[in-house]
Automatic annotation (TrEMBL):
GO molecular function, one term: glycosyltransferase activity
Database matches in InterPro entries: ArabinofuranosylTrfase_AftA_N
Listed transmembrane segments: 6-26, 33-51, 92-109, 116-135, 151-171, 178-196, 208-237, 249-272, 292-317, 324-346, 358-378, 390-409
Arabinofuranosyltransferase AftA N-terminal domain sequence ranges: 80-360
Keyword field contains Transferase: no
Protein name in the entry: Arabinofuranosyltransferase AftA N-terminal domain-containing protein
Domain of life: Bacteria
UniProt KW keywords: Membrane, Transmembrane, Transmembrane helix
Annotated GO CC locations: plasma membrane
Length: 568
């Protein structure tokens, strides 16, 4: 750690003091709620930008899902919005909405995947609180679900508590999942209330349908849980209301599907024509079956807030909003239970943890916001000014402590990663710069296992290094079998024939890591129950002779080869 790093940490801590002072001023002056949300967003975004300033990599050093995130931004920006981040001839299989938005900006300004990801996260910190506040305010449309002032306090607290309980690393790494989860919950509440109030007008059908389509393209899985909530609530309706209830939901769903067609249609057509292998859904480790229940976890003040939220949902469960929140929790447990059932009787994983990951903490955080808003109403009715001020002061302290400018930067792991993420290994950086100078390097079908490249330079893969995260239509098993056969080749001619006649098209470019005189590739393979297994594949350098392959770059670490179109 250098003094520059110390200065960065000190500056962020000063942001904490600045936040406290200005917040107390806002409380005294009784400024509008939205202005505090905007202020919190500005300080959070500025702290994040300061934390990652002059860092060449993403926050955790371009590890794990950071590679996928940066690759998606980079590919969408510089190859096309409808191309998969690894296989450019296949459509995106992961919900692309959030990535598209910032990739367009990245294309305009010539940013790479790292720069785009940083801008996307900074934008999330800046606008998430105030956008969620106004989104909920517009959706409510004077339906009077609860007292107007109580509702305003509720939607004011909800985004703040969510940002306090979910963990800064999740806010930094996957803001799109958080945004879609929050939008899904409030969209479900508003749609349910509107349907029960009266038959939806076509304007309302279009509005709710468009929002559903947007959510689908942000992260579609949460809409499955919303569907389960609507089904649960249907059992509490009178028989005469069930048909119009379902009819309105179907209308909204149809509009949502139409809005999401730019994502859905190319993907469905590809699966029909090519087929699919969904390795991610089939992957299982025992940790996926863990129970999540905030009533038993008190390791931090954030968990205590979740406990308050859980109790609030139960306490006010006869009211509309808490009842729907409870249904979301019920849906998460139903999903978990179904997954356990499939595991027990069919040994089939179902990503049973999904309901507990992001969605349930968001639901309980919103429940905490509801409970605190009702507690606030109690002080308001008692005209207890002192009680209101104490509650606000405590809230500001907790909010600041759990913000990115709070305890987060005191974590030794965070401080260590802030140093690690400064630079890309020199040999990989040089490789990226070389690829930028080679003609068609981004379009040729390439075999490699240096995933960090994708954050800076798009690569059209023959086989992606991570089986768990590969495109379902890429048919990983067939492609990996081809590379396994290549490993067993005994002559350069045989190797040439294998890569020329490879399933799904020839392999034209190779980026090999040089190790012990061999060309080497590394792949991450799914090993159910045990986790991820690293598989090393090595080739003799003589296998890629000049007769059949052209060496276009060579260093002490990496070699780039290209298949000759016509071998002599």
């Amino acid at each position: 750690m250098t003094f520059a790093d110390v200065h960065m940490l000190v500056a962020i801590k000063l942001f904490f003091l600045f936040f406290l002072v200005v917040s107390l001023f806002f409380i005294r002056k009784k400024v509008p709620l939205w202005s505090f949300l905007l202020f919190f967003g500005v300080v959070s975004s500025a702290s994040y930008l300061l934390l990652v300033n002059n860092h060449m990599l993403l926050f955790w050093g371009l590890q794990g899902d950071e590679i996928t995130v940066a690759a998606m931004y980079n590919t969408f920006a510089h190859v096309g919005l409808w191309s998969d981040f690894a296989f450019h001839n296949l459509p995106a299989f992961y919900p692309p909405g959030y990535f598209w938005l910032f990739a367009i900006l990245g294309n305009w300004f010539g940013w790479n995947g790292i720069q785009i990801a940083k801008v996307a996260t900074a934008t999330f910190f800046l606008f998430f609180p105030i956008v969620i506040y106004f989104f909920c305010k517009i959706l409510e449309e004077k339906k009077k679900i609860v007292d107007n002032l109580t509702y305003l306090v509720f939607i004011f607290l909800a985004p703040l508590i969510i940002m306090s309980t979910l963990g800064i690393d999740l806010l930094i790494g996957k803001p799109y999942e958080i945004v879609s989860a929050v939008l899904t919950i409030f969209w479900t509440i508003a749609l349910y209330v509107h349907i029960l109030t009266k038959k939806l007008s076509w304007k309302e059908v279009l509005s709710f349908g468009i929002i559903a389509g947007v959510i689908f393209m942000l992260y579609y899985l949460w809409l499955v849980f919303a569907g389960m909530v609507f089904i649960i609530q249907m059992f509490f309706l009178k028989r005469t209301k069930i048909f119009p209830y379902l009819l309105d939901l179907i209308k909204v769903a149809l509009v949502g599907i139409i809005v999401a067609l730019p994502f859905i249609l190319p993907l469905v057509l590809t699966y029909i024509n090519v087929g699919m292998e969904s390795w991610q859904t089939a992957f299982y480790i025992p940790a996926n079956s863990k129970l999540w229940l905030p009533i038993t976890q008190f390791g931090s003040s954030a968990n205590i807030i979740l406990f308050v939220g859980f109790i609030s949902i139960l306490w006010y469960s006869r009211e509309t909003i808490p009842r729907l929140l409870l249904s979301f929790l019920g849906a998460a447990f139903l999903w978990w239970g179904l997954g356990l059932f499939l595991l027990l009787f069919f040994s089939t994983p179902f990503q049973e943890f999904r309901g507990f990951y992001v969605l349930s903490p968001v639901v309980v955080s919103i429940g905490a916001a509801y409970g605190i808003s009702r507690f606030w109403q109690f002080f308001k009715e008692k005209r207890d000014i002192h009680g209101q001020q104490v509650l606000m002061f405590v809230g500001v302290l907790l909010l600041g402590a759990h913000a990115i400018f709070g305890f987060f930067v005191d974590d030794p792991i965070v401080q260590q990663n802030a140093i690690i993420s400064k630079t890309l290994p020199e040999n990989v950086f040089t490789l990226v710069e070389v690829l930028k100078t080679l003609p068609e390097a981004d379009s040729l079908v390439t075999l490699h296992s240096v995933p960090q490249i994708l954050a800076f330079f798009p690569i059209n893969h023959y086989l992606y290094f991570n089986q768990n995260n590969t495109h379902p239509a890429a048919i990983f098993s067939v492609r990996f079998a081809t590379i396994s056969a290549l490993e067993l080749a005994t002559s350069s001619k045989e190797a040439y024939n294998i890569v020329t006649s490879a399933p799904y098209g020839p392999i034209d470019q190779f980026i090999f890591y040089k190790q012990d005189g061999l060309y080497t590739l590394y792949f991450h393979l799914d090993k159910p129950i045990q986790g991820i297994e690293e598989r090393k594949i090595s080739f003799s350098q003589e296998l890629f002779s000049a007769t059949y392959f052209e060496k276009v770059y060579d260093s002490g670490h990496y070699t780039i080869l290209r298949r000759k179109s016509t071998a002599k």
